[in-house]
Backbone:
């Protein structure tokens, strides 16, 4: 199965910042009043959660040490952070809220030093400890799911985002997108499509294009090309100037054997000057050839070479010759095969094709030279036919012994054996 060019990116958001630890005098009445106001605002971010807002009990001594650690964290002194918070970690005198702050600080210090696995452990402890206010609790949980996805812990990411959706009561589309991404990575494509449909539905009038891209990829992987084409049609409608969507749409039409739809998409890209990549130009001329439009294919190859989008190498020039030949433009085909042969020092196939067409044009001397060159270069895909052509040239020149020798070589190859036997019979040879 052909692969999409399209590259699928992770659905993720920036990491949330750590809570700044309260200073030692945070237990004053004025601070407690502001804390209650902040707590109320945090609760408003998750109005549908059934989780009760926990108390933020603190004590002055531990909060001083936590504040010192967080100051060191802001200054990049990660060893100091780990030392201070490591001594506090698990201390029975810490409140649940303080223990959550400790775990967050340890997690952030580890993360800043590229130790993501340790960071995940401490962030998970901060969530499971249950001491953080709702806003931070659910931010951390969502952050964990994102990191698990980025670290390719797809089962864990799926479990975490499912927990987040269940406990937070939120229906934000990014979460369903994250779930769909995890399911896609786990190759659970039907479930991925269902989750992505939820994400799209929850996005109102402006769903992110990435959700459609991921849904299209999931449908493509499960070989639901009709469904994938419908998603791509929507993406093309939304972003008509995005070339990759149109390329993938054409590819999907090809999978559905709807060449009558695929060809106009690619031709429109070419006519509008948006066909840039060599592979896309090659896809267009191959599609034209497959649709029995060899003259158009030859024109596309010629234009692609002139534009510098296609290399004038032996394979491209041979494809040019093949399409000219199919279009019955024999002189142009001979020229293309001649150019291909010049670029093929160790491959005689273009010389063989050139010799064949020169023989058809009754340009026997040139045909003889081309076929001799083909035999000298070697690596022929159909050497039996080359011997048949040489035998025919020798027979027409009255060199029967040379013709017989060539036809006997052709006998050794299945594809040419039948014709070789007929020629030998006509020449009275056995």
Residues:
């Amino acid at each position: 199965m052909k692969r999409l060019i399209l590259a699928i990116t992770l659905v993720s958001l920036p990491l949330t910042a750590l809570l700044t630890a309260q200073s030692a005098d945070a237990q004053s009445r004025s601070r407690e009043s502001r804390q209650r106001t902040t707590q109320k605002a945090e609760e408003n971010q998750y109005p549908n959660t059934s989780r009760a807002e926990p108390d933020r009990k603190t004590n002055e001594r531990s909060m001083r040490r936590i504040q010192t650690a967080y100051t060191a964290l802001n200054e990049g002194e990660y060893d100091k952070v780990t030392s201070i918070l490591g001594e506090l970690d698990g201390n029975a005198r810490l409140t649940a809220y303080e223990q959550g702050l400790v775990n967050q600080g340890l997690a952030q210090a580890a993360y800043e030093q590229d130790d993501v696995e340790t960071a995940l452990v401490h962030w998970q402890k901060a969530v499971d400890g249950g001491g953080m206010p709702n806003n931070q609790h659910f931010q951390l949980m969502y952050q964990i799911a994102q990191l698990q996805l980025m670290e390719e812990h797809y089962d864990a990411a799926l479990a975490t985002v499912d927990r987040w959706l269940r406990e937070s009561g939120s229906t934000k589309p990014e979460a369903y997108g994250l779930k769909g991404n995890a399911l896609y990575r786990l190759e659970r494509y039907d479930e991925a499509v269902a989750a992505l449909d939820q994400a799209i539905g929850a996005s109102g009038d402006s769903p992110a294009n990435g959700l459609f891209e991921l849904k299209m990829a999931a449908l493509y992987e499960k070989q639901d090309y009709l469904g994938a084409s419908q998603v791509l049609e929507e993406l093309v409608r939304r972003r008509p100037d995005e070339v990759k969507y149109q390329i993938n749409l054409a590819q999907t039409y090809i999978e559905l054997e709807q060449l009558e739809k695929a060809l106009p998409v690619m031709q429109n890209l070419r006519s509008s000057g948006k066909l840039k990549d060599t592979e896309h130009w090659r896809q267009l001329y191959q599609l034209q050839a497959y649709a029995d439009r060899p003259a158009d294919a030859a024109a596309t190859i010629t234009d692609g070479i002139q534009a510098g989008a296609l290399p004038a190498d032996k394979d491209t020039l041979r494809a040019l010759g093949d399409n000219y030949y199919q279009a019955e433009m024999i002189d142009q085909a001979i020229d293309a095969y001649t150019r291909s042969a010049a670029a093929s020092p160790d491959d005689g196939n273009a010389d063989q094709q050139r010799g064949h067409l020169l023989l058809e044009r009754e340009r026997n001397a040139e045909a003889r030279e081309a076929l001799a060159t083909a035999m000298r270069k070697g690596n022929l895909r159909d050497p039996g036919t080359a011997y048949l052509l040489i035998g025919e040239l020798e027979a027409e020149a009255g060199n029967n012994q040379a013709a017989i020798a060539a036809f006997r070589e052709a006998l050794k190859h299945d594809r040419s054996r039948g014709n070789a036997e007929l020629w030998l019979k006509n020449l009275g040879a056995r």
About this structure: The CA atoms of residues 174 and 371 lie 65 Å apart. The longest helix spans residues 96-112. The domain at 1-170 is CATH 1.25.40.10 (Serine Threonine Protein Phosphatase 5, Tetratricopeptide repeat). The chain has 22 helices and no strands.
